């Protein structure tokens, strides 16, 4: 009977040891589940932030593209305006020069005519 009590005591001690190991394993398992949950939560939050940043980046790029297009249009308009102004100034300047040359040509013709008429009326020596 003492042998049975010794075996029973040994088995009871082993069962208590197994219970302690099982309890520790369950606690560790719960801690690992808690950690996993926290990591999944952080991952989810990080993914949401990354998606928001990506959307913000796309919006910034879109705004920059629109600003670039607007600047190109303004540059083209300014170039056309400058070209138009320079063309108008050149046209006016050329018109003035042509008018001046035509007047000068008329004066030359009149002078030549007057000179010829005067020459014709001069007494011969």
Indicate the proportion of strand residues: under 5%
Helix content: over 70%
The helix count comes to: 1
Oligomer: single chain
3D architecture notes:
The protein is mainly alpha-helical. It is built from 1 helix and no strands. The protein is rod-shaped and about 180 Å long. The mean pLDDT is 92.
Short description:
The chain is mainly α and 125 residues long. The protein has one helix and no strands.
Question: What key attributes describe this structure?
Answer:
single chain, 125 residues, 96% helix, rod-shaped
Task: List the topology elements.
Blueprint: H1 2-121
